[in-house]
């Protein structure tokens, strides 16, 4: 059984997709031990509570010093002894001490096709604003392992989504979530939970 901690910051639709996938069998051999948020107002916390999943908040308001915050965040995650840490709409910069504690055991969902529209400054709606201002015709989402860069770890899964004439950033964000994020995040977790993923020379291999 793959024990997970899911880290969130906002609406929690990716968390909901994971919980639903566990319920309907899309994800097997995995369970969520806790949901941890850096934002007390994250609706993701309500989603966790509705499912009876343990939820905690670690906010910078509570721990203003950055180094101390990073240590408290890591301790909070480690308390649940996860095999996998899942960043699901998580806007916290994951500290090096956490990446080092969980090598190739932290995954993130990015709402673009890495290496496009990623890295510092590309998060949330800003990703889709960049996509629309560049005029690309295809975007999508990426699930990747987290390393000590920003959106630079080994890519696990990607799914393309059409950009349509007249799209606003909000409309495009929703389409990328519905048609890509909520599909590839559960799929990636199921592959990991069933030992189908390995990383060789920095590249992900998926065994059938
Ligand atoms: C999603 O677009 C996700 O890719 C990004 O944050 C947005 C909200 O995610 N990281 P969620 O609804 O909180 O899962």
Throw out a few tags for this protein:
single chain, 208 residues, alpha/beta, Rossmann fold, seven-stranded mixed sheet, two-stranded antiparallel sheet, 6 helices, 36% helix, 25% strand, globular, binds 5-O-phosphono-beta-D-ribofuranosylamine
User: End-to-end distance, in Å?
Assistant: 19 Å
Report the uncertain regions: none
- Series of secondary-structure elements, N-terminal to C-terminal: EHEHEHEHEHEEHEE
Number of discrete helical segments: 6
- The helical percent reads 25-40%
Compute the number of structural domains.
Answer: 1
**Mean pLDDT, as a whole number?**
97
| Spatial order of the strands forming the largest sheet | 3-2-1-4-5-6-7
Strand content: 15-25%
CATH-level-2 architecture: 3-Layer(aba) Sandwich
The Cα radius of gyration reads 16 Å
Q: Which small compounds were modeled alongside the protein? A: 5-O-phosphono-beta-D-ribofuranosylamine
Shape: globular
What is the fold-level CATH name, i.e. the topology? Rossmann fold
Q: Give the CATH class.
A: Alpha Beta
Structural class: alpha/beta
Q: How would you sum up this structure in a few lines?
A:
The chain has helices at residues 13-24, 43-50, 66-78, 96-101, 125-134, 169-193, and strands at residues 2-8, 30-37, 55-57, 84-87, 106-110, 138-145, 155-162, 197-200, 203-206.
